[in-house]
Write a structure and sequence with these properties.
Blueprint lengths: L1 E5 L6 H11 L3 E4 H10 L3 H10 L7 H12 L8 E4 L5 H14 L5 E6 L2 H9 L1 E4 L5 E3 L18 E2 L6 H15 L1 H8 L3 E5 L4 H12 L4
Helix pairs in contact: 1-9, 2-3, 4-5, 6-7
Bound molecules: BIS(adenosine)-5'-pentaphosphate (AP5), magnesium ion and zinc ion.
Length: about 220
């Protein structure tokens, strides 16, 4: 299955991506995760991306598009992928259309997770992530059993540097200005399904399953 996850910062894209790739044949591709890995490894791409990410701004299209185009050409994603956090601008969406055309691929569904703006800051600021395996928690909504320690692998939990209130507010504004127009873009192509993200994590996933159907 070839899928796109759309939604504002803190909507639950990463959380639901973990559920989706467990249930369907799709490889999770998160551009945010790829940038964070590059930052950790101090690569040139990481150094460039960090300048923008720390300010809550988008990394320039040309850096992102090339990265995703290369990733989509790899063998492991030929039967399915789940793009999380890409595309984020109309320009990126048009570039993706071209890449897919050259690969003879077609997006099955764009899953648009909608969450009330007032809940997004709390979600992002309370998020904690496992250093080792990347599992995502929330200090109130989805806490780990033991504070600061991952349930899955006992790794240490950390907070993203862009998950401070001021930067989250900026990211939400950038989403409204640059990414929200994609809802119209994909409504025109008829592939979008909008999911109510203001429900329990398991209920959100149930709605996604209903929208995708059971076969993979
Ligand atoms: P990225 O990493 O993609 O961040 P984002 O889009 O801001 O989204 P988040 O990861 O913050 O939220 P999420 O929707 O994944 O929520 P999660 O499931 O974790 O991008 C980071 C930066 O990289 C960008 O700002 C930009 O600079 C750059 N970048 C990346 N892609 C780019 C691109 N294509 N172009 C240009 N720049 C790019 O959940 C959040 C919290 O809420 C968690 O704590 C979770 O436990 C909790 N939660 C989840 N679901 C629920 C629920 N239903 N109820 C209660 N709590 C919930
Ligand atoms: Mg995410
Ligand atoms: Zn872990």
């Amino acid at each position: 299955m070839k899928l796109i996850l759309l939604g504002p910062p803190g909507a639950g894209k990463g959380t639901q991506a973990a559920n989706i790739v467990n249930a369907y044949e799709a490889v999770h591709i998160s551009t945010g995760d790829i940038f964070r890995k590059n930052i950790k490894e101090n690569t040139d791409l990481g150094k460039k991306a960090k300048e923008y990410m720390d300010k809550g701004l988008l990394v320039p299209d040309e850096l992102v598009v090339e990265l995703v185009a290369d990733r989509l050409e790899q063998d492991d994603v030929k039967d399915g992928f789940l793009l999380d956090g890409f595309p984020r601008t109309v320009n990126q969406a048009q570039a993706l259309d071209k890449v897919l055309e050259s690969l003879n691929g077609k997006i099955y569904k764009v899953i648009n997770i909608q969450v009330d703006k007032n809940n997004l800051v709390e979600r992002a600021v309370g998020r904690r992530i496992c250093k080792k395996c990347g599992a995502t928690y929330h200090i109130s909504f989805n806490p780990s059993k033991s504070e600061g320690i991952c349930d899955v692998c006992e790794g240490e939990l950390y907070q993203r540097t862009d998950d401070v209130e001021e930067t989250v507010a900026k990211r939400i504004q950038v989403y409204l200005d640059e990414t929200q127009p994609l809802i119209d873009y994909y409504t025109k192509s008829g592939t979008i399904v909008t999911i109510n993200g203001d429900q329990d994590i398991s209920k959100v996933f149930n709605d996604i399953k209903l929208a995708l159907g059971s076969e993979d």
